[in-house]
Amino acid sequence: MPISRESAPPSGPARAPVRVLTVAGSDSGGGAGIQADLKTMLAFGVHGMSVLTAVTAQNSRGVQGAWELPVEAVRAQFRSVVDDIGVQAVKTGMLSSAALVETVAELLAETDVPVVVDPVGVSKHGDPLLAASALDSVRKRLLPTATVATPNLDEVAQLTGVEVRDESEMPRAAAAVLAFGPRWVLIKGGHLPGDAVDLLTDGGEEHWLRAPRHDNRHTHGTGCTLASAIAAGLGTGQGVLAAVVAAKEYVTGAIANGFPLGGGIGPVDHAWRFR
């Protein structure tokens, strides 16, 4: 059957889309980490690229093993992509150790693009993904590079010692994270009861973002997905608030459509808008 003029692919070279880089670990189950980041970037119409920091053996039940990549491999991946292809935004996730945190922070400081730092500490199942010895490097080296930092309440407590028990304590948590140097912080209140409420602030402006809580246990990959969606928005030139609002809307839909895989917690649906 001949291809109609309307459906024929355009002739000539296409313009390259916005390029966004994720620096994170691999989730062999495909729900979080590098895999979630790249799926999210595709959903936002940007070209996703990756710097792999660690390999995990991971499924719906948890993390069965994790192997950190050498600093030299992480640095080489980053330079290979940035020096040739270029980037418009970067997102960081699992960085495992102090050596990797400091290496990535050094690379980001030399790259003049928006950076979204997801200070991943533990997996959805409670498995540790960041060495305790790396926390000081995250505070002093990585967070100061962030355009937006996106800690959940467990990560806030891990980094600052501030325990958030209700919504009223979220501004204090935000101030504690901002003290380490990110331009903006998004405190994710998804672990609190009631609506899923997040606080976005730069220490001056405060924006409270609310969404209904969906009765769905299949939420693996929410943090990675949210941070990658924000990075995609920043890469396309959106302001921080607009990028975060769009990311929150996307993640809310992905959670509502999360599906079962294996015998444990399934992933959010990164393709929910296309199904």
Write up what this structure looks like:
The chain has 275 residues and is α/β, with parallel strands linked by helices. The protein has eight helices and nine strands. Strands 3-2-1-4-5-6-7-8-9 form a nine-stranded mixed sheet, sandwiched between helices. A hairpin with a 7-residue loop joins strand 7 (184-188) and strand 8. The model is unreliable at 1-5 (pLDDT under 50).
Number of helices: 8
Q: Say how many strands there are.
A: 9
- In helices, the fraction of residues equals 25-40%
As an assembly, this protein is single chain
SSE class: alpha/beta
Q: Strand share of the residues?
A: 15-25%
Q: Estimate the global geometry from the Cα principal axes.
A: globular
Low-pLDDT sequence parts:
1-5
N-to-C series of helices and strands: EHEEHEHEHEHHEEEHH
Alpha carbon gap, first and last residue: 27 Å
- The strands making up the biggest β-sheet line up spatially as 3-2-1-4-5-6-7-8-9
Radius of gyration of CA atoms, rounded to a whole number: 18 Å
